[in-house]
Design goal:
Order of helices and strands of chain A: EEEHEEHEHHHEHEHEEHHH
Order of helices and strands of chain B: EEEHEEHEHHHHEHEHEEHHH
Structural class of chain B: alpha/beta
Shape of chain B: globular
Shape of chain A: globular
Strand content of chain B: 15-25%
Oligomer: heterodimer
Strand content of chain A: 25-35%
Largest sheet of chain A: 6 strands, mixed
Largest interface: A-B, 65 and 66 residues
Bound molecules: adenosine-5'-triphosphate, magnesium ion
Chain lengths: 270, 278
């Protein structure tokens, strides 16, 4: 067990929804139904699955950004729900998240330099000059420039905003990063650059990733292990090669068969 | 073949820096019943081009030159009120980031219904039935009609926007990375739905994407953008199999393979710049 840096045990989460003619009735949406996963230190665990299957809910619950109905999340041997406020704040530095919706997660009135550097400021890491230098270095590593520090979120393209979210999470040199669709808005070149950056940092500082993605080609490149979710449940879990070569579940097989572009020669051969 | 959309010499600059072209003199034509995929670098001006066609450029930006001809009419000269008659009815748009275009305080059912009421005058039971059918078509249970956008998953929000954009069966659909938040099975369902509209309504589609697998599956023509310019365009087989421009070649070389054997390798821009200068 000791090689697991983050593990989740029997997580459940049910949302209650208004429904019916005037919204007086309620419907229950079971977003997490007895989900257990384990992330080994220094590795990448990909979470794939249908839209609406509970991946983002899992991500938020792992980081205690949302309360669970039941179940526990253990980080470095500690139950996150049992930490005191100050312990949790301290731990936050080690547990970072890249959000699925970049625009909604960036404060529209803050300049990018401040957004990316805020964590350093909060956790008092280095002098102001050092923080500034780190922000510049991080922006460059995600393919942005020093001049971008002065701009506001709305002045960027979708893919540029996604990279701002990545820079903000990685600059803190956390231990675990939960990435929710981190490269979905990037062209294939920048995508490769970001994936290589994630791998590089993993090697440098033994970072561990939970990597949520619907792009099975990307998952194949980045993941050591894969969890397949379907309707709030984990339906399959294992080493990436095993799952791609011999998927045990119909749903996983359907996913692998639906990768687009298979019929096109240029896509198949490259 | 009838011409549906003709963009000619479109140029967009920030008001604060008029010498910097974010979109630089681009031109292309889209025909009815056809799909043109726009691919290219992150930040190359794809979304701005789409927004310009819709007349929705931010007030900080200027369309300093160019025409947008839609069914023979230059719509870039229309007033906002005239544009509102076209937007949502004859031209549908799926925006890149759903949360920026969905209203957080209105239910998704209300937002889909609004388009139908405004443009088609639907009311009462007819309206309800149509909303339910649209939700089902994009794979969301109709019982989620009273959900607010933040009660949906990322991919569900994206699908609500798709439902809104096709509610009035537009003749032109502008789709800005419409399936980025969808798993491949739901994506396949959505692409099939759009293809049906294309066949049945002769709908033309301008489809921005980073996914070359999707391009290969749905495009008739491809436009490649790089640093604000169109560097290459042509029939899908031509562009994917015999790319001419160094950027297109370099970009295609980055497409990840499905079995994970090809090493990840971003474009070497220094090399590309030299290649272009030579
Ligand atoms: N309001 C603005 N002010 C200044 N620059 C802007 C503004 N909006 C966009 N830009 C810049 O214009 C360029 C083109 O943006 P656009 O959103 O069209 O890119 P894109 O091709 O859609 O990229 P992506 O694939 O990342 O979504 C980007 O470099 C962006 O930073
Ligand atoms: N605040 C909420 N209130 C009610 N239901 C919710 C809420 N948030 C999420 N849900 C529902 O819970 C389910 C799981 O959502 P979640 O966002 O975790 O899915 P996901 O796997 O991340 O999907 P996607 O791939 O589309 O992003 C969905 O059916 C969603 O509609
Ligand atoms: Mg999600
Ligand atoms: Mg864009």
């Amino acid at each position: 067990m000791s090689d697991l840096i983050l593990s989740a045990h029997h997580l459940t989460k049910t949302y209650t929804q208004r429904s019916g003619k005037f919204g007086f009735g309620t419907t229950q949406v079971k977003a997490l139904d007895d989900v257990s996963i384990g992330l080994k230190a220094g590795t990448t665990l990909a979470v794939v699955g249908e839209s609406g299957s509970g991946k983002s809910t899992l991500a938020r619950c792992l980081l205690q950004l949302q309360p669970l109905d039941s179940g526990e999340v253990i980080f470095e041997g500690k139950d996150l729900a049992k930490l005191s406020g100050s312990e949790l704040r301290h731990t936050r530095r080690d547990l970072q998240m890249v959000f699925q919706d970049p625009f909604a997660s960036l404060n529209p009135r803050m300049r990018i330099g401040k957004i990316v550097g805020e964590g350093l400021l909060i956790h008092r890491l280095g002098t102001l000059a050092e923080q500034q230098a780190q922000v510049i270095r991080m922006l460059k590593r995600v393919g942005l420039s020093e001049a971008d520090m002065q701009k506001y979120p709305h002045e960027f393209s979708g893919g540029q905003r996604q990279r701002i979210g990545i820079a903000r999470a990685l600059i803190l040199q956390p231990k675990v990063v939960v990435c929710d669709e981190p490269v979905s808005a990037l062209d294939v070149s920048i995508q490769a650059q970001i994936l290589l950056l994630l791998k590089e940092l993993q090697q440098e500082m033994s970072l561990s990733y939970i990597f949520i993605s619907h792009d099975l080609r990307v998952v194949r490149h980045i993941a050591d292990e894969v969890v397949v979710m379907y309707k709030g449940k984990v339906v399959e879990q294992g080493a990436v090669n095993d799952i791609y070569q011999s998927p045990a579940q119909d749903y996983t097989r359907n996913l692998l068969n639906a990768i687009p572009g298979r019929k096109h020669a240029a896509m198949a051969s490259t | 073949m009838s011409e549906l959309l003709r963009i000619e010499g479109l140029t967009i600059t920030p008001k604060s820096a008029p010498e910097r072209c974010l979109v630089d003199d681009i031109s292309f034509v889209l025909e009815s019943g056809k799909t043109t995929c726009v691919v290219g670098e992150s930040g190359s001006g794809k979304s701005l081009t789409a927004l310009a066609v819709m007349g929705l450029l931010s007030s900080q930006l200027n369309q300093v030159a160019g025409q947008v001809n839609f069914q023979g009419q230059d719509i870039s000269r229309l007033t906002n009120q005239q544009m509102q008659q076209i937007r949502g009815k004859r031209i549908g748009m799926i925006f890149q980031e759903p949360m920026t275009s969905l209203n957080p305080v209105l239910t998704v059912g209300y937002q889909i219904g609004e388009t139908l009421t405004v443009h088609l005058g639907l009311k009462g039971g007819m309206l309800k039935a149509r909303i339910a059918s649209l939700l089902e078509q994009v794979g969301i249970p109709a019982e989620r009609v009273n959900s607010y956008p933040d009660e949906l998953s990322g991919g569900q929000r994206q699908r609500v926007m798709i439902a809104m954009s096709i509610a009035c069966e537009p003749v032109l659909l502008i789709a800005d990375e419409p399936t980025t938040a969808l798993d491949v099975t739901v994506q396949a369902q959505i692409l099939k739905l759009l293809d049906e509209l294309k066949t049945r309504m002769q709908m033309g589609m301008l489809f921005i994407t980073h996914d070359f697998g999707v391009v290969a599956d749905i495009a008739d023509n491809v436009v490649v953008m790089f640093r604000g310019k169109i560097v290459e365009s042509g029939a899908v087989d031509q562009v994917l199999n015999q790319p001419q421009h160094p950027y297109t070649k370099a970009l295609l070389a980055c497409v990840p393979d499905a079995d994970g054997k090809k090493p990840l390798k971003p474009i070497d821009y220094a090399w590309l710049n030299e290649g272009q200068a030579a």
